[in-house]
Design goal:
By secondary structure, this protein is of the alpha+beta class. 40% of the residues lie in helices and 16% in strands. It has one domain: Orthogonal Bundle (Cytochrome p450). The protein contains 7 helices and 9 strands; from the N terminus they run ααααββββαααβββββ. Strands 5-8-9 form a 3-stranded antiparallel sheet. A hairpin with a 5-residue loop joins strand 8 and strand 9. Helix 2 crosses helix 7 and helix 3 packs across helix 7.
Length: 232
């Protein structure tokens, strides 16, 4: 699954739009492709197990670009808030980089603990993203929680979900990755229905990036009815 996502992400980078063009140097583009492929495979995995969410993505894409239209113009992405919410929710549950690291430039006190300057601080994005004090039903896949009209009821703490980091040292390729994921999700769901290729849920393995414990296997059913397995 990850290899398929990476190939598609690479093709998007080669055809960089005006949004992605400033970030198209080879090394940076390769990093963007790796990041996008890992994040997108988790998004596909979650959508395959939540058909209601997948249906909402399809309906939104059809409203934004029209039924029967095969291309997705860049300006249509602004009309897909639910697709963006799916991406945010995926990164909350499965952040590509499981930790943020910083070296303190001054002494600080955190919750009563004194931490001297020069110490390395690690922040677990996986832990904060699933904190019940910041998110209701923290282990549930609920993209609607990120929609503006649902914010008062959904108990969302945006500061607890920082998959790209924050501030001057945040991910420089954030916008590139977000646009690539939006195109990948919209185009794939527009053409295929996703269903799980295995019954068991896929666990995670914490490395430099958050990877599946076992390969993710999906079944892609084209909207014309034939079935194409992918993964493993």
């Amino acid at each position: 699954m990850n290899n398929a996502c990476r190939r598609r992400s690479a093709s998007l980078s080669r055809g960089a739009s005006r949004v992605t063009a400033p970030f198209s140097r080879p090394n940076r583009r390769r990093d963007d492709d790796i990041w996008t492929s890992h994040a997108t495979q988790w998004a596909f995995y979650l959508l395959s197990r939540h058909p209601d969410a997948q249906r909402k993505v399809l309906e939104e894409v059809q409203r934004a670009v029209g039924v029967g239209r095969t291309d997705i113009p860049e300006e249509a992405l602004a009309r897909m808030p639910y697709v963006k919410a799916v991406i945010k929710e995926t990164l909350r549950l499965y952040p590509v980089a499981p930790f943020l690291t910083r070296i303190l430039d001054q002494d600080i006190t955190l919750d009563g603990y004194s931490v001297p300057a020069g110490k390395l601080i690690l922040m677990s994005l996986y832990t904060t993203g699933r904190d019940p004090n910041s998110f209701s039903e923290p282990d549930a896949f609920r993209p609607d929680r990120w929609l503006r009209e649902n914010r008062p009821e959904s108990n969302v703490n945006s500061w607890a979900c920082l998959p790209f980091g924050l501030g001057a040292r945040s991910c420089i390729g954030r916008r590139v990755a977000e646009v690539q994921m939006q195109f990948l999700l919209a185009r794939t769901i527009q053409r295929f229905d996703l269903s799980p290729g295995q019954e068991a849920e896929v666990g995670i393995r914490m490395r430099m990036i958050t990877t599946p414990e076992n390969p993710i296997s999906l079944k892609l059913t084209p909207r014309d009815g034939s079935v194409q397995p992918i993964g493993k």
